[in-house]
Amino acid sequence: MLPHDALEVPLAELLAHPSLGLTQVAGPAGSVTVSAVATTELADPTPYLQQGELLLTSGLGLADEAGGIGVYVERIATAGVAALGFGVEPVYPSVPEALIEACERHRLPLLDVPDGTPFVAISRAFAEVAARRQQREFETEARAMAALAGAAGGDDPIRAVVRQLARRTGTTAVLLDPDGNALATGGSMPAPAVRRILRDHAESLQHSDSVLATAAALGDRLHLALQVVPTGSPAGSRLVLGLTSPGPLTLSERRTTASALWLLAALVSPRYALEARTEGIGALVRLLTRDREEGLDGLLRSGVGGVGEHWVVVRGRSVRAAGQGRRDTAVDIATLRTALGTPYLDLADGQLTALVPCDRADPPTPPTDAAELGWALGYSAPFRIDELVEARAQADQALRRALIGDEAVRVHHDTDAALDSLVHDDEATAFARSLLRPVTELPADQASTLLATLHAWLSCHGSTERTSTILGVHRNTVRHRLTQVAALLGTDLQDPGTRMTLWFALGWLGTADPRQAQPGSRGPDH
Predict the structure, then answer these.
(1) Helix (H, G, I), strand (E, B) or coil at 469
(2) Distance from C-alpha of 526 to C-alpha of 522, rounded to nearest angstrom
(3) According to the model, what pLDDT value does residue 302 have?
(4) Would you say residue 379 has pLDDT above 90?
């Protein structure tokens, strides 16, 4: 294995050097690289060799070695020598046939070094070629780092950095979240079999102390390298950056990858994700979705490159399975700002409010992997900045419908308008209060629990099982609460007309959504 910081020079560049006159007479031609040039006349030089060297010899010790030339070639090939340069004269007038045969057998490139080409000239030529390559790689790295830095300062920094990394290294780059989902991808999407390998390696890194995993899949045709992105998260969740390429990464590509890792670590760190400006954004989102505030549209839009003239409100709820564990808030913010395409997030206790800029005729496309990321999302229609209270109400309604329908995403459409919009608001509210007064006059906790249970049950078309799942309580608890509601209202909940009337009344009353009836709340059934 080559040293991690070795500068590798293609053997072809030395063969093409005009002043050396080197000729390859045996061994495979192709992408052989050389990390150093060494000269020796020892019969057994293996204790002093490093992998990747071009070894130069005039053959002084070949005939004296037991087993002769074959043993010599086998030893140096096993030691990882990249190629052997044989200098003709003064010992041998030409390259020995036995040496050519042995190099062919061990697939070791053999160079004919003509009389008049001193070994030191080859060393100097290697140094010159290496210096030129080093300068070119430095310039390439500088351009790559500038591109990465520019991507990190853009509107969608995490995805942009991953895309730039793939472009600058000629790889496919995938940023995996703690559950192994692709948070961002650069280059062509890996095949399903490769994605499974990436997920498996990423999962192993989640549960180990290691920060690096490398593998060669499908022989020598596909190489994978995975590395942990440090998040600085106190809960220990890890993001993993995976790269797939036809061959091992070069030194320059490894350095570029290291720069990308540093930037990604900064972008997902708690300091970046949770610092005061993010808290300020959260407060601003809360303010804008409750009260009208003049003069802030331009300020907000300047933070996302002036995209569009309208805004969509996104409401979300974490629906991670019980066995998936608790997600770091910092990781969630990094994930959601990338998935939703906006930095304007308010995230707390598994509840999300986000503002996404857009054109009215071109609303944002919801993420297709919302379920895999562990979220249920509700999208409003596009609104102006002074209409966000209505937008939030739409998003809340869409989220409730997503949760009831067990959907990952629900987007509000104008066709969602119902017949209850034909009733005047004041009349509708007065009717609802009168109808539901026997329940609303109970202590606040009891009333909230009963109304939320009734709302969930009606939303589930009278399914007790589905309602218990939505509320997180036992089905017998649901039945008990419904029996209390029916008794208080003096009505038959099995009557379709009664159900329809109660459904409209709950909506007109503005009752809380079913999620407020938590299984641990103090209600009449406790």
Answers:
(1) helix
(2) 6
(3) 59
(4) yes
